[in-house]
Amino acid sequence: MDCIHYAGPVNETLPPCPQCAGAYTYEMGALLVCPECAHEWSPATAGAEEATNAGRVVKDAVGNVLSDGDTVTVVKTLKVKGSPNGIKAGTKVRGIRLITDGVDGHDIDCKVDGFGAMQLKSSVVKKA
After folding, report:
1. Which helix (H) or strand (E) element contains residue 31?
2. Has this prediction a pTM greater than 0.90?
3. Which of 17, 55, 71, 72 could be 125's S-S partner, Cβ–Cβ 3.0 to 4.6 Å?
4. Sheet (strand 116-120) strand order
5. How far is Cα 17 from Cα 44, in angstroms, rounded to an integer?
């Protein structure tokens, strides 16, 4: 039996999620919430977050300026918890997203083939 999930109507009056650009945001009290990534934010600070991201410059290992949607190449082999091999140098990562709230200096959010979604540091990649 096929299972059908109803996501509900897209509310065109609310802004998309600033973290994942999801269109299904909803209001919960004074906050806006994204059901896709569970990001919560205040509508008053949404413009300030975008302004902060716009003024921030992220550079790769050789000094090239990175932006959302770029394709990058990993410059050194990276160990990954739970994986015996890790990510090898030369692996291409497409469609990166720059983030400000990464842990321990991780400022790139991406999906790596064979590993899934993860965060990388800009110092271990170069623009392809």
Report:
1. strand 31-33
2. no
3. 72
4. 97-98, 108-112, 116-120
5. 13
